[in-house]
Amino acid sequence: MSLFKNLSAYDDRSARLAGIALMVLSIFMFSFGDAMGKFLVGTYSVGQLLFLRACAALVLLTPLIWRQRRGFLNLERPWLQLFRVTLSTLEVAAFFLATVYLPLADVITYYLAGPIFVTAMSALFLGEKVGWRRWTAILIGFCGVLIALRPSAQTISLPALIALGGSLSFATLMLITRSLRKTPDIVMASSQFVGTFLLGAVLSAFHWVPPTKGSLVIFALAGCVSVTALFCVNRSLKLAPASVVVPYQYSMIVWAVIFGFVVFGDVPQIATIVGAAIIIGAGLYIYLRERDLGRQDEQVNPPV
Questions:
Q1: Residues of the chain with pLDDT > 90: what percent?
Q2: Cα torsion angle, 255, 142, 26, 55, sign
Q3: With b meaning 16 or more CB within 10 Å and e meaning fewer, what string describes 206-244?
Q4: From CA 13, how far away is CA 241, in angstroms rounded?
Q5: Which residues, at least 6 apart from 143, have a Cβ–Cβ distance to it below 8 Å?
Q6: How far apart are CA 216 and CA 109, in angstroms?
């Protein structure tokens, strides 16, 4: 926790770059957790995954929750906090539900539309400045996603619509997180897991498969990875504008290729490699552009 607090003391430019680094790290961990979740829903229900994953995460978070219990009092905009938890719960459930019926790469394709949603909404609702160069880089990056993943013919299927709805929920969640800068990280993270815990408890009651010891280890690991990833993404969004850091979700395709090969034996094709190169190039351009604008762009209020 001290590392995250130290990041708060950075100047505006350093805070933005630190936010980018944290977003990249969080995407790696989210991708790792997605691969584990995809593996688990082959045997267990989505509700059971949400429930056991949240149990492990809340056990890990309990000491921090107790130590910082005062942070749960007098929360800013409680109704917005509740809406954020609801969006987070629905987004996670939608993602894993979609992976039951669609390949992981297809689901990620819809989720990688998130940066376009975020960029548009951040300019519209948060008043963040998004120049044409970043817009162009984001669109080029999305073209790279399409080249790499080549969405299947199931584009208008119900599972695809669920994934797209989850992507929109995720984008809105990012914007709300950005607007709740004064909310402590532990409150943000733990409340999201409470939401998935409650939904998972209800859904798993209808379909429960006794987990093996090996599966319990994976459930626990998934929860621990998710905790770390959430802390990183929440702090990232407090350090830098959403329109700057969220486009780095595109790095998810790189990890999808790696985990697909290592875990599921999927060999990447030429189109995937070309698309990944375009995505990385667009991401590097956004990074360099942000580094240049950091000296003259609007200030970022550091988190408290």
A1: 22
A2: negative
A3: eeeeebeeebeebbbebbbbbbbbbbbbbbbbbbbbbbb
A4: 12
A5: 278
A6: 29
Q: Which two structure tokens, joined as six digits, stand for 200?
A: 């998972």
DSSP reduced 3-state for 209: coil
Cβ within 8 Å of residue 300, ≥6 positions away:
12, 15, 16, 239, 240, 241
pLDDT digits (tens, 9 = 90+) for 190-200: 888 999 999 99
pLDDT in tens, 102-120: 777 778 877 777 766 777 7
CA dihedral 220, 28, 31, 141 (to 10 degrees): 170
Can you read off the two tokens belonging to residue 207?
């379909």
Place of tokens 């160069």: 133
For the record, the structure tokens of 19 come out as 């936010």
Tokens, residue 156? 């208008």
Q: How far apart are the first and last CA of the chain?
A: 13
Torsion angles phi and psi, residue 131, rounded to 5 = -80, 170
Pairwise CA distance, residues 81 & 117, whole Å: 21
Exposed/middle/buried for 158, CB within 10 Å: 0-12, 13-18, 19+? exposed
3-state helix, strand, coil in the chain (%, to 5): 80, 0, 20
